[in-house]
Structure formats: C-alpha cells, structure tokens
Design brief:
Residues 120-220 form the PilZ domain. This protein has helices spanning 6-18, 60-65, 210-223, and strands spanning 25-32, 35-47, 51-55, 74-81, 87-99, 105-109, 115-118, 125-135, 141-150, 154-159, 170-175, 183-193, 199-205. By secondary structure, the chain is mainly β. The protein starts with 5 loop residues before the first helix and ends with a helix.
Length: 224
C-alpha cells in the first residue's frame, strides 16, 4: 500500500498509473451486492488526475453487466504495468460516464488509494489450463498437457508422454479453449513424476515477444 502525505500519495498514484502502457489489460470487477461481474477491458487513455478511460467491451459478460454500468457504481480495478518490475496494481473506485459513439469507452475515477505487488516476485498461481506441447528440431513432436501453475517466468505442465522431454529442450506451449490464441516459447528445466504417475515438466518461459508478454499478463491478471 502506498502511504505517504496526501500530495505525495497522489503523485505516486499518478506515476504508477501513467507507467501502465496504453492497451494494457484491465480487469474490472463490478460490485453488485453479493454478485460480482468480472469484465475484461483495455486501457485506452488517462486524464490525469481525474479519470481512466477503458475500452467498453461487447462480449456476453459486458451485456450481462450492462444494467450496472452507471456513474457511481463501485468497482475494483486491476491492471499491470508490464515494464520494470511488472507491477500488479489494484484499487477500488467508481464508474464515471460511458460513451458508445463514435468510440466505445468507459471512465473510472482516479483512486484515493492503490495497492501494488511485484508479479515477478510472487509465487506461481495455481491453474488448470489444457495445452499442446510441441518440441523437436522442427517441432514435429506433439503432446497433450495441463498447465498446473504459472508465473511470468515459467510454469509446470502435467504431460502425457512416455518419457521425459530432455532438459534444455526448446518447446512451444499452445493453450487450448479460452486462451487458444496464446502460444508461448519455453525451455524444459526439469521433470518429475507426480502421485498419479504423470510426468511433470518445469518450464522456463524464454524470449517472449511484446505481444506474447501482453497476452500472458492478461491471462495472469484474469486468474490472480
């Protein structure tokens, strides 16, 4: 938690938010009594120190929450500054106005308080993501797997292979289902056998492009 004098606090909040790149992923939680609508958005602008401008979504989750998207509606915002320490920023605030023409955007008020965490120093998050693993000189070998934990630096994957993939092998991890647009490069660092007899590979993510890193941040943000 950033806690200093009022003026210094506002300056630090502004600095943290302005460090977030345009089009970075934003997780919006609309607090509606005992129900929480969770929406995926992107940062499209900042009017410092008044409001943040977020992309107004069109998928079913946004349609379900549409009746709650009114000025003054309490929300929790989480976003990632992907540069430097890769900070996860989180704060509670209120919705402002929405505009649907000529561009679709939604405003949220600048926060009074903000919390941050270094995602690169945090423990891996526990997940269950189906994936395909490709390896070999020409990525001609293929196996099904399940990613069981994930961080910005690596993951562990339960695999359906007869023998471990050799250490230092370069692989590509293709996500299935909701995140099928995401493929990440990595290198096998170790392997072990779990209680059910499946081979689990520890993988270090390597040489991520800016697009891959952005997609990974979005996935991490949605499952943090």
């Amino acid at each position: 938690m950033i806690q200093t004098s009022r003026h210094e606090e506002h300056e630090q909040i502004s600095k943290a938010l302005l460090a977030c790149p345009i089009n970075c992923p934003v997780d919006v939680q609309v607090l509606a009594g005992s129900h929480v609508y969770r929406l995926k958005s992107r940062l499209i602008g900042i009017d410092n120190p008044h409001v943040l401008l977020l992309r107004l979504g069109t998928d079913q989750s946004w349609k379900d929450a549409n009746h709650r998207l009114e000025p003054g509606q309490p929300v929790v915002i989480r976003m990632v500054n992907e540069s430097g320490q890769c900070q996860l920023l989180a704060f509670r605030t209120q919705l402002g106005m929405a505009c649907k023409v000529p561009r679709r955007w939604l405003t949220v008020q600048f926060p009074e308080r903000i919390e941050s965490a270094n995602m690169r120093e945090q423990k891996r998050i526990h997940v269950q993501f189906g994936c395909y693993i490709e390896w070999g000189d020409h990525k001609e070998k293929l196996s099904l797997g399940t990613i069981i934990d994930l961080s910005t630096k690596g993951c562990r994957i339960e695999t359906k292979v007869d023998r471990p993939i050799p250490e230092s092998s370069n692989i590509r991890i293709r996500f299935k289902d909701e995140y099928s647009h995401l493929t990440l490069p990595g290198a096998v660092r170790n392997s072990s056998v779990d209680a059910s007899g499946q081979i689990v590979h520890g993988v270090q993510l390597t040489e991520l492009s800016s697009t891959e890193r952005s997609h990974l941040s979005e996935l991490m943000l949605a499952n943090y």
